[in-house]
């Protein structure tokens, strides 16, 4: 079973770390190998369940990436705002002057 599948009552409570991401990437590698093997054997119907799990994993990883970019951007914005305010204070400028 995919590690992305989490019962509804536990959703949003898991911590995402490098180990979790690596396990997902390893799982995706194995899923791609299974899909390729089934396709080579002409068993496309069996591929569907693996493709669905792979799709879910990829969407989950993309969501993590988007969230980390959003938090990095907000951190960067607050840092640049702090830097601008500090530079204005050093130069004797205050807001409204």
Automatic annotation (TrEMBL):
Composition bias, Low complexity: 72-89
A Pfam entry, by short name: SSXT
Domain SS18 N-terminal positions: 14-72
Residue ranges of the region described as Disordered: 72-97
Taxonomic superkingdom: Eukaryota
Similarity remark: Belongs to the SS18 family.
Name of the protein: SS18 N-terminal domain-containing protein
Organism from which the protein derives: Oreochromis aureus (Israeli tilapia)
Gene designation: SS18L2
């Amino acid at each position: 079973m995919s590690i992305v599948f989490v019962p509804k009552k536990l959703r949003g409570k898991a911590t995402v770390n490098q180990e979790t991401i690596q396990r997902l990437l390893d799982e995706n590698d194995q899923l791609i190998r299974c899909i390729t093997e089934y396709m080579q054997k002409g068993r496309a119907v069996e591929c569907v369940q693996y493709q669905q799990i792979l799709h879910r994993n990829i969407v989950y990883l993309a969501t993590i990436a988007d969230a980390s970019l959003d938090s990095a951007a907000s951190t960067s914005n607050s840092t640049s705002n702090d830097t601008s305010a500090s530079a204005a204070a050093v130069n004797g400028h205050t807001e409204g002057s």
